Amino acid sequence: MNTVCVTNQKGGCGKTTTAVNLSWSLTELGKTVLLVDLDPQGHASLALGFDTDLLDRTVRDSLVRPPLAVSDLFLPFSDKLDVVPANISLASLEQELAGEPERELRLRQALADLGRPYDYVIVDCPPSLGFLTINALVAADEAIIPVETSSFSVHGLERLLETIEMVERNTGRRILVRVLATDFHGQTRYAREFLESLSERFGEQLFETVIHHSVVAKDAAARGLPVGRAHRHSKLDNDYMALSTEIVESAPVVEVENLRKWEEKLFGPSVRGEEVIFRLHAPGARKVQLAGRFNDWDPQQGEMKRDPISGVWTIRVRVAKGSHQYRYIVDGEWIEDPANEVHEYGETGFRNSVVLVGDQ
Description:
Elements (H helix, E strand, L loop, with lengths): L1 E5 L8 H14 L4 E5 L5 H5 L27 E2 L4 E4 L8 H4 L9 H5 L9 E5 L6 H9 L2 E7 L8 H15 L4 E9 L4 H14 L3 E7 L3 H7 L4 H4 L4 H15 L20 E3 L2 E7 L6 E5 L12 E2 L5 E7 L3 E9 L2 E3 L7 E3 L5 E7 L3
Helix pairs in contact: 1-10
């Protein structure tokens, strides 16, 4: 699962338009997507036809204590796109949580267990650098910054980049930051020069895809539809399909043969009485499972959970005393534990990792 926040403290830069239409275009490429509306204005929810004034449950309910599970908040838009909606009730949350410990982790914690696998979680941020945006950045693997091709669109951008760097320092992880040129008027000299200046400033951080100016975005949003449904094959639809393709093709891939190079970041099994905590550092993996003698070599019984900040997959297993062989399954490929030097050959002839529990 890749968590992407779409953020810019400046309004009118195409932030919500990008979050909504990127989500839809990813589903057109066969990806499953959860769109999280984190803006009290609820524009992403409205753009997909949900009446935010009638909602009893919103993303706010997953950020308070005790929280509702995010899976209880899903509003299905299609078979591959679900929405966690927002409305104005979210606006007071920052003041309500003032002074509470680890409040910047609320969204990350809420997204840790979604109840079903998603390829992408897209978070539409509010036009500010407050509590909600910090929560989105802490939870994100990637930040997309839409920049309208006008002279005022870069105002405050450096402050946003400094905020992202602060989050990286405090969490000890890297957020992939990419800039997206939006509302591009290709026929004007100014827009072309502005795009060139963005390229000089951000280099490879600037998407090759450019989102062109189009009137169909507002029409689609007013109808509660993504552009790809309201105006299929329009220039704007093609732009967001190109953006989705660029994102998918540049997604990190877990190379199992290279896992052993990460040994300094890996965690072997930790035995605590008859409970064993298995941990594997595989931040680019979409799915990690554990199979061993203790669960009849059934990967379905060993679904591991990923920490979105550290990229570490974890599972706790009750194991009887003795010697137990096991393997990890990373995106369908069975591998030994790179952090465990204890191995033995199993009945099928494969070499398996071994965990010892009790007095051995």
